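Researcher: I'd like a candidate sequence for this fold, 335 residues long. If you have to choose between options at a position, lean toward the conservative one.
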């Protein structure tokens, strides 16, 4: 799915800071600020590798590499975590607490980054799972589906479910959980996990009222530059919607959108979702820098101090904690 493509740190840093779509046609997109990904579209935006169909296996996989901690957490919740021989991108574990965090911390890390192809193949997996199609040849150094096939490994990745329209739910998450459960032959556990995620969301939905206008961003607006916000096709839009919010950049049918400062003032967000996990400093520093932005100073959100800080790992991509993200944002919107 598109949201996933932008989730991992490298892509988020590259493009979260430069944006892709524009809700304000008069505002040009900023130029990329760093090295480009392995392929680019005609308009200069990154192209995700083709999303493979879920594999058809004659028996459950026995050696699994997860390309990110988010996928590893799904396997753990499904009770098949003992099949994981290694993971990349363990920073996704930071959103977990208690016994679950301790259990995830025991998983062998084969690459602290995005999942180097040599490290992944050296683990001799029969299945490689990731929450982003970019993890399969989209990030520099990561293995392509073809490379993995030649090494004897199948690939399973979360893919788009919204087909370029605004995301309004967590279908990408629940679909991916069901696909993973089917591959491992634990469909009932998959259904139970989906029920857990949807129950958390339903509890919040019952308390939601009139949609609150929301701006979601991961960096403070820079002087003279467009405001880089979450667009309508990312999973974040679904999380915000379920929390009772209305993303002011939803009409930009991109994962990320550029809004001019004037447009942000005009759309006047009543709440701001701060996407953490990309900035080098603390969450508190990030929140303070966004709160003190002159561009946002006149908005209702700043005047009423209505913010929610949410880790990117549970907001922008399928996660067993997506329901927690919904609840956290809802709490800020309706306080």
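Model: Candidate sequence:
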């Amino acid at each position: 799915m598109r949201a996933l493509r932008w989730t991992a740190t490298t892509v988020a840093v590259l493009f979260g800071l430069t944006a892709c779509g524009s809700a304000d046609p008069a505002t040009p997109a900023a130029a990329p600020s760093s090295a480009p990904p392995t392929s680019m579209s005609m308009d200069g935006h990154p192209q995700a590798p083709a999303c493979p169909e879920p594999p058809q296996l004659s028996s459950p996989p026995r050696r699994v590499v997860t390309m990110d901690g988010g996928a590893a957490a799904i396997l753990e919740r499904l009770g098949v975590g003992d099949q994981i021989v290694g993971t990349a991108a363990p920073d996704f574990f930071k959103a977990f607490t208690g016994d679950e965090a301790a259990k995830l911390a025991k998983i062998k890390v084969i690459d602290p980054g995005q999942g180097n192809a040599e490290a992944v193949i050296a683990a001799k997996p029969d299945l490689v799972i990731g929450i982003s199609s970019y993890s399969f040849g989209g990030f520099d150094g990561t293995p392509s589906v073809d490379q993995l096939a030649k090494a004897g490994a199948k690939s399973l990745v979360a893919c788009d479910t919204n087909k370029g329209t605004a995301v309004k739910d967590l279908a990408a998450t629940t679909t991916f959980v069901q696909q993973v459960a089917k591959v491992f032959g634990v469909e009932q556990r998959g259904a139970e996990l989906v029920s857990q995620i949807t129950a958390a969301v339903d509890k919040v939905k019952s308390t939601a009222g009139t949609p609150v206008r929301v701006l979601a961003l991961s960096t403070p607006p820079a002087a003279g530059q467009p405001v880089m916000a979450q667009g309508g096709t990312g999973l974040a839009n679904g999380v915000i919607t379920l929390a009772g919010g209305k993303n002011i950049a939803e009409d930009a049918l991109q994962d990320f959108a550029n809004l001019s400062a004037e447009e942000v003032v005009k759309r006047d967000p009543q709440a701001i979702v701060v996407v953490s996990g990309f900035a080098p400093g603390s969450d508190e520093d990030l929140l303070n820098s966004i709160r003190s932005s002159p561009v946002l100073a006149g908005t209702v959100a700043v005047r009423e101090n209505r913010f929610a800080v949410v880790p990117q790992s549970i907001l922008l991509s399928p996660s067993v904690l997506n329901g927690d993200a919904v609840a956290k944002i809802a709490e800020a919107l309706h306080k």
